Amino acid sequence: MTKRVLATISVVSLSALALTGCGADDSGSEASKEVTVWMYPVIPDEERSAEFWSGVEKDFEAAHKGIDLTIELQPWDNRDEKIATAIASGTGPDLVLLGADQALNYVEIGGLKPVTDDIDDIDNFLASPLDAVTFDGDVYGVPIYQTATTVAYNKALFEAAGVDELPATWSEVLAAAPMLAEQGVAIFDYSGSPELTLNLSFYPLLWQAGGSVFTEDGTDIAFDGKEGVAALQFLLDLQAVGGLPTDAATKNNAVEGGPLALGSAAMGSVLTQPQVAQMQAALGEDAVVVGAPLKGREQVAYGTPGVLSLTTVSKDDAAALTAANFIASPAVAHELNIQAGNYPVRKDVEEPADDETTLAFVDALSFASPGEIFPNARQVMAVLAPHIQAALQGSVSAEQALADAAAEARTILGK
Predict the structure, then answer these.
(1) Stretch 101-130: mean pLDDT, rounded?
(2) Of 49, 258, 273, 356, which is most buried, counting CB atoms within 10 Å of its CB?
(3) For residues 199 and 208, what is the distance between their CA atoms, to the nearest angstrom?
(4) What letters, b where the CB count within 10 A reaches 16 and e where it falls short, cover 186-213?
(5) Pairwise CA distance, residues 138 & 128, whole Å
């Protein structure tokens, strides 16, 4: 596994608890123990999500009668602020669902405990999800799923515009954009709302251009280089020929009720499988083609593991890790993948299905990047997003937008 070295600067001061042994204990000494998990909408349908996690609680408590498990369903909105505040005040959950970049941030501020020696059947886990949350040689979360994103097309719109082959590269997208614009269709559904994570909008384009947000050692900003300018200029060039939705600078990435479902945009480049299912429901299954991730200089997509991390306010590490290992167990993980449209992190868990759409997403995992796993990555993202929006609104050039964002971001890094 790759060893990541943690920076020494903390952005929040937390009182870390002593790192005691936190292995799961099935000895029967678990009486009157309580474990709280903060879970997020990995299952998009609220009713199905509540039903699934309620069932997990019941199954776990039936198998571990001394532990009361509460899985609290939290919203994505203001997630980091709520987690940091809860941990800092000592009122946070025992376990919290995190992505890889988030996990590093909370390790940085003393909010998580390592679980390196406490993951059941660790040899059955794939290396990549474990590596993504391994910092200074310790693992800081039990992986329970991994996500994948890729491209999906409304093939009827391309056919109507006279585009014979679905575009798979930047140059092909740019070439086809004017043909679809003549039909009143934006070729590329881009979502520029600053509230949306850039992992699902600009960052995949940056990676496809061969760029990155940070330098390799994480000590400086890199998104203002030629690769970043090329990625943002790609969007501006598409916009100039009618290739983006008219509200691209402000819209979110919802499929239902959005351009992809309404037939006013022809392709999405950073879609999850549940979003593709929404396209299929709106347009008809035969109208939607799922392809490989888009290629610029590189072929890259976003995909990250979801891990249950042990917080420093955990009241009983052994009970919490018992719950985490239960949720990560093959039977529960497989059903979660089916319900959420996610993918296995274990060798002993089957793919959620074998249909063409699922297999296309499984193939996309080989192109997946877990994001920018560096200290302050989320803070830098928050700085960058409004500058990209400003460029899409015509206020500044691509080069100036990224230069302004880089100057602001470097103050976060102490530059």
Answers:
(1) 94
(2) 273
(3) 12
(4) bbbbbbbebebbbbbbbbbbbbbbbbbb
(5) 14
Percentage of residues in the chain with pLDDT exceeding 90?
A: 87
| Distance from C-alpha of 25 to C-alpha of 98, rounded to nearest angstrom | 24
Average pLDDT over residues 255-261: 96
How confident is the model at residue 26, as a pLDDT?
Answer: 44
Residue 220 confidence (pLDDT): 97
pLDDT tens per residue, range 341-362? 899 999 999 999 999 999 999 9
Extract the tokens encoding 253.
Answer: 């990435």
Instruction: Give the integer Cα–Cα distance in Å for 150 and 104.
Output: 25
Q: Which DSSP category does 64 fall into?
A: -
- Residue pair 37/94 in contact (Cβ under 8 Å)? The answer is yes
Compute the half-sphere exposure of residue 106: CA atoms within 13 Å on the CB side of its CA. Answer: 35
Residues with Cβ within 8 Å of 164's Cβ and at least 6 positions away in sequence, in order, are none
SS3 100: helix
- For residue 14, name the pLDDT band (cuts at 50, 70, 90): very low
Give CA–CA dist 164/111, Å, rounded. Answer: 53
Q: What is the pLDDT of residue 78?
A: 87
Superfamily of domain 33-147+303-369: Periplasmic binding protein-like II (3.40.190.10)
Round to whole Å and give the CA distance between 70 and 37: 6
CATH topology of domain 150-300+376-412: D-Maltodextrin-Binding Protein; domain 2 (3.40.190)
Residue given tokens 């600009």 in the structure block: 202
- C-alpha 91/C-alpha 67 separation (Å) is 19
Integer CA distances (angstroms), 33 to 4, 30, 64, 153, 320, in order: 34, 6, 10, 50, 9
Amino acid 13: pLDDT: 33
Model pLDDT, residue 101 = 85
Taken as a whole, the chain contains a residue count of 415
User: Where does CATH 3.40.190.10 sit in the chain?
Assistant: 33-147+303-369, 150-300+376-412
